[in-house]
Amino acid sequence: MPQITFIEPSGNPVPLDVPEGWSLMQAASANGVDGLLGECGGSCACATCHCYVDDRLMSLLPPPQDNELGMLENVAAERRPNSRLACQIKASAALEGATVTLPECQE
Ligand code: FES
User: Fold this and answer.
1) Is the CB of 47 under 6 A from ligand 1?
2) SS3 track for the chain
């Protein structure tokens, strides 16, 4: 179970042991992490699970699919090169030690 640290908008770090196969949105929501809404429940239809991934995670992840790229055009906070949707990132052992930063706003 990889440990992934979520940085809340306040700067507070929240380390979570995320079951493999869970999305990062699921993990953050289930643990009350501030700064992520996940209004569509993870079906890549709301863009309220916007996050910024660290450099290593960015190099590990496959590039966003077309539907994720489309939703990333609708994020409320600044879109950056490392912007991703947390519902589209599945936890795996390779993600151990990753850091995901949550933006100031999601809508
Ligand atoms: S939870 Fe809606 S796009 Fe990720």
Assistant:
1) yes
2) CCEEEEECCCCCEEEEECCCCCEHHHHHHHCCCCCCCCCCCCCCCCCCCEEEECHHHHHHCCCCCHHHHHHHCCCCCCCCCCEEEHHHCECCHHHCCCEEECCCCCC
